[in-house]
Design goal:
By secondary structure, this protein is of the alpha+beta class. The chain has helices spanning 6-17, 21-26, 28-51, 123-135, 137-144, 147-153, 169-174, 199-218, and strands spanning 86-90, 103-107, 111-118, 183-190. It has a four-stranded antiparallel sheet with strand order 1-2-3-4, covered by helices on one side. This is DUF2461 domain-containing protein.
């Protein structure tokens, strides 16, 4: 079954040209009916689907996972008040989880994006992940070069130190990913996927493909 109507996409296309409170207020009922509620319903269905095989998602609620459509404009030069997509992170503690630890996705009028991996962590955890990669180079390399992982996500991304920390200088010469400060991965699809029956199956496939690498990271750091 399809989870969204075409008006989901049309709403954001029109919002892009009218990104102001007056227009949004005039279209608020439309937003509630075509965007907010269908997205919340889909997120909860997806949570329930994952919970069948992953008990850590069992008590999770969509409201704990969905990000607000309002942009934080306090420190931004761009003062447009609304995001042009809906987004959520399905992780054991929703938005309170550290560093994704599940699957993050954005549904916009131009594309669907799906993310996983380690994005923001504390200095101590950064050291532990680097140490984990340094001590398990063959396992890590096998995970990031796995055929299906490469087919779906391409590669692991993230900012990288230009100079190797002294503790990892020798290992970093063999495995440059030790220099990373994040280890995240993402893929994208045409926005038309939002209107397709196989939307949930596609997100589930992304989650499953990224899971072995997520599990690898979880051996070294706690991501509640």
């Amino acid at each position: 079954m399809a989870y969204f109507t075409k008006d989901y996409l049309d709403f954001f296309i029109e919002l892009a040209a009218n990104n102001n409170k007056d227009w949004f207020d005039l279209n608020r009922k439309r937003y509630e009916y075509s965007v907010k509620k269908p997205f919340a319903d889909f997120v909860q269905l997806f949570i329930d689907h994952l919970a069948k095989s992953h008990p850590s998602f069992k008590d999770l609620k969509a409201s704990e996972c969905i990000f607000r459509i309002n942009r934080d404009i306090r420190f931004s030069k761009d003062k447009t008040p609304y995001k042009l997509m809906c987004s959520a992170v399905v992780a054991p503690n929703g938005k309170k989880s550290k560093s994704i630890h599940g699957v993050y996705f954005e549904f916009g009028p131009e594309e669907v994006r799906v993310y996983g991996g380690v994005y923001e962590i504390e200095k101590e955890d950064l050291f532990l992940v680097r140490e984990g990669i340094a001590h398990n180079p063959e396992e890590f390399n096998a995970l990031i070069t796995d055929k299906e992982f490469v087919n779906v996500f391409g590669e692991v991304r993230g900012e990288r130190n230009k100079i190797a920390p002294k503790e990892f200088k020798e290992e970093a010469e063999k495995q440059p990913y030790i220099l990373n400060k994040q280890w995240y991965f993402f893929t994208k699809f045409d926005a038309e996927l939002i209107l397709q029956d196989h939307l949930m199956e596609t997100l589930d496939h992304c989650f499953q493909v990224g899971l072995p690498l997520e599990t690898f990271f979880n051996k070294f750091i706690q991501r509640p």
